[in-house]
# Entry
Amino acid sequence: MSQKTQLASDIRDQQDRILNDWVNYQLSAMTMRRDLLKEQELREVSRDFLNLFVTALEDNADISTPSWKPSKEFLGELSRTRALQGFSPSETAMFVFSLKQPVFDLVQRQHQHDVKALAGDLWTMTVLLDKLGLYTTETYQESRESIIQRQQQEMLELSTPVVQLWDEVLALPLIGTLDSSRTQVVMEALLQRIVETGAKIAIIDITGVPTVDTLVAQHLMKTVSAARLMGADCVISGIRPQIAQTIVHLGVNLHDIVTKATLADAFRVALQRTGASVAKAALSAHGTTASGDDRGGGN
Amino acid sequence: MERIPILKMGPYLLVTIQVDMHDRVAMTLQDELTQQIVAHHARGVLLDISSVNVVDSFIGRMIGNIAGISRVLDAETVVVGMRPAVAITLVELGMALPGVRTALNVDAGMALLKSAGRIATNGRPAR
# Structure
């Protein structure tokens, strides 16, 4: 205990020198990101942490004790902000690991003739700094994971709009891969909108679905079945040529479902089924020579 | 014991399920409905399940059975008012009720029955 306290007071005595060395090591390291971090900022952060570090070390060298709490909180905050700023894990961990060099230098200077004490102190500091480094990396990882989770959630919510195209006609443009959790969200959104709008036809557009395998097809069938139970027929549109080939090669049975190549075709079917029709307005005398006159029937 | 009323509306029978379906209630319904279809020469059955919050595989099968029995007796069954959660449950249970016609509400169901009746009587002698 007294040895560790001695070490702490040594560091305290030479804090300025250590800080200087440490900042220089960080600046010269390969992992220094000058684009994200200014030297002044780095110096401030390093000084603050060194203060907390020495204060905790004066008490003990076990980071699971309460005296290390401020240091850990500081590191946690640091790695969280760095994760958000786009630092890599090693660049973040380097903040702690680069402290080894100046501290080791100090230990060496203090115990030039006492090999045993030198080895003891070195070991203590290695264990301590390694633990702090691992803690930094862990926090970094956690904040990265929370970012990923949040983005996944956002994607889930963003990518399931159900739009009304016409009276009693809904469209569900799907973007991205369909997994079971997304299918659940999509299905619920669609059924809810069917209840709200009293839709008779739902067009599921899969133009934005990159691949259709048996699982995705099964999810599509489930959605179609559920909509049918609610009294709405489904039309699947936006089937690209490769996807049509895949569906047939996989032996997926889509016989009971109307499928169309484009959303426009599906919309036409939907209008037909609901008894609505869209016609071009009669063109003015000036515009009769324009194209599209052939199906107008008026003039 | 709880019983589910079966109402006659012109050539159709209207069944509104407003209680939790126990297996016994379901069996009684199936029994009585069959008899009523025969007694009234019903053309169609409208099964309103808009108050049903919970279904299990038995109830799902029962709905399928009612539709099957009605079809044998030459009456069309339309299931109306299924809730989203119920629809998802049935699909997850693997019971998509093939061969059962569905509609969003009683209005749409009645329209479906009427149009189905027209098509059917066109193709075969009227009774």
The CA atoms of residues 80 and 142 of chain A lie 8 Å apart.
